[in-house]
């Protein structure tokens, strides 16, 4: 049966056909843009494109020969439905055999020819074409209604509902044509209602496909962003390992500093997302050491004034390396690299900032870096006992360190010790 009955006097039919054609045009642009990135929209593009040619043929069918007004658009409708269903199957990777879909379509096409020309029977032609279209759609409904991806769940279930409505009304219209005791005028009135439901369902289906493409592209963009961030982190950690190996500092130093910083960040009231960003940025605090000569970086004797000036320049170098980026991670890392040797009383370097002039990230990492440096073995000193390290931090609260952070540090000392044990140092 033609998807749309030849109702030449119904103004709503023309209006809905134009609306459908408009949506198909919009969908076509979207599917054309998405076809190279996603599997499925290419089939939708073909299917809706064919439907755009089907509707005018149905509309003008009373003025056309049987082949052009019924048989040919019926065939286009079947192939268009097959392409739309294949697009949905491919898009969601539904387990449905391709030969099954193609076989149903071929049978429908043969029945269309059979009851158009060999043994002409309009009722049977209508019934079998509608039945074929419905059978193409029914297997997808259950699969679509069970999709679990949060971003795609609503448009996918909306699509499944549209397929269900289409299949139901197609079967209803097909059965209606075979009922002998219903008058032609009553059949026509029912057909108008069914026609309205069918066109609206196809509009809903096309709209749901647009929403699914949009959701899938957003998912891909999010995935690519996550992959980019992961790649950046891997490159940065590789660079940090190079810096740590050059300075012969203890293993896991940057990992411990990162976890200490996360712990203190949460204690200050940071959100988990903010604390995570701080933990990612903290390991970059000594990135500037990559530009310091090995002979100075690994010197075990006391540094000369000039050598001290050179090694202190790693803060400014680190800031210069990282400040070229506008990403939140590297902007935070830039300030930490620049400020983690500043002191609460203004006697630090390189800018001699005082108190809260030092960013919270710089204050937190400065405290964590000193704690870890004193508690572990370095080429120029043995590891201090933990009690001695804690005494040093307490003594320098308000001079070297932010006194409020020192209070939070001691309040979370049990967590700090767990982190220290988890990432045990070994001589580097």
Give the tally of β-strands: 0
Shape: rod-shaped
Helix content: over 70%
**For the report, how would you describe the main beta sheet?**
none
Computed CA radius of gyration, to the nearest angstrom: 35 Å
Q: What separation lies between the terminal Cα atoms?
A: 80 Å
How many helical stretches? 17
- The secondary-structure element order is HHHHHHHHHHHHHHHHH
Provide an overview of this structure.
It is a single chain. The protein has helices spanning 11-34, 41-59, 66-92, 98-118, 122-145, 150-178, 184-247, 253-267, 272-281, 294-297, 305-312, 314-322, 328-339, 360-375, 386-395, 403-411, 413-422. It is mainly alpha-helical and 428 residues long. Helix 2 (41-59) runs antiparallel to helix 3 (66-92), helix 5 packs antiparallel against helix 6 (150-178) and helix 14 (360-375) runs antiparallel to helix 15 (386-395). The protein starts with 10 loop residues before the first helix and ends in a 6-residue tail after the last helix.
Question: What's this entry about, in short?
Answer:
With 428 residues, the protein is mainly alpha-helical.
């Amino acid at each position: 049966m033609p998807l749309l009955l030849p109702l030449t006097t119904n103004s709503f039919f023309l209006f809905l056909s134009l609306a459908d054609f408009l949506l198909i045009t919009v969908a076509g642009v979207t599917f054309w843009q998405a076809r190279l990135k996603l599997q499925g929209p290419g089939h939708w593009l073909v299917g809706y494109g064919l439907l755009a040619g089907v509707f005018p043929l149905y509309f003008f069918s009373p003025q056309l020969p049987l082949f052009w007004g019924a048989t040919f658009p019926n065939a286009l409708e079947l192939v268009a439905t097959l392409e739309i269903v294949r697009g949905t199957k491919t898009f969601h990777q539904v387990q449905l055999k391709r030969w099954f879909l193609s076989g149903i379509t071929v049978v429908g096409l043969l029945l269309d020819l059979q009851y158009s020309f060999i043994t002409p029977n309009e009722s049977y032609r209508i019934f079998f074409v509608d039945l074929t279209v419905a059978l193409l759609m029914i297997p997808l409904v259950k699969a679509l209604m069970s999709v679990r991806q949060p971003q795609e769940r609503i448009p996918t279930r909306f699509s499944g509902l549209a397929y269900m409505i289409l299949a139901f009304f197609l079967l209803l219209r097909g059965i209606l044509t075979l009922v002998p005791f219903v008058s032609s005028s009553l059949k026509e009135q029912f057909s108008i209602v069914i026609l309205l439901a069918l066109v609206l369902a196809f509009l809903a289906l096309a709209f749901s496909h647009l929403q699914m493409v949009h959701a899938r592209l957003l998912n891909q963009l999010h995935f690519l962003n996550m992959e980019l961030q992961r790649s950046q982190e891997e490159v940065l950690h590789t660079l940090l390992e190079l810096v740590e190996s050059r300075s012969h500092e203890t293993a896991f130093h940057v990992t411990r500093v990162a976890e200490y910083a996360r712990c203190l960040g949460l204690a200050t009231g940071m959100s988990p997302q903010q604390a995570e960003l701080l933990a990612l940025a903290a390991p970059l605090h000594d990135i500037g050491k990559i530009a310091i000569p090995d002979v100075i970086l690994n010197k075990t004797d006391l540094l000369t004034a000039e050598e001290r000036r050179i090694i202190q320049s790693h803060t400014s170098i680190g800031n210069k390396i990282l400040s070229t980026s506008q990403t939140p991670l590297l902007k935070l890392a830039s300030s930490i690299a620049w400020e983690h040797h500043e002191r609460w009383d203004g006697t630090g370097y390189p800018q001699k900032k005082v108190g809260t002039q030092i960013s919270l990230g710089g204050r937190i990492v400065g405290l964590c870096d000193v704690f870890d440096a004193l508690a572990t073995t370095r080429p120029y000193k043995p590891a201090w006992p933990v009690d001695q390290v804690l005494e040093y931090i307490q003594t320098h609260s308000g001079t070297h360190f932010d006194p409020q952070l020192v209070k939070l540090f001691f309040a979370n000392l049990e967590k700090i010790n767990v982190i220290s044990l988890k990432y045990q140092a070994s001589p580097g």
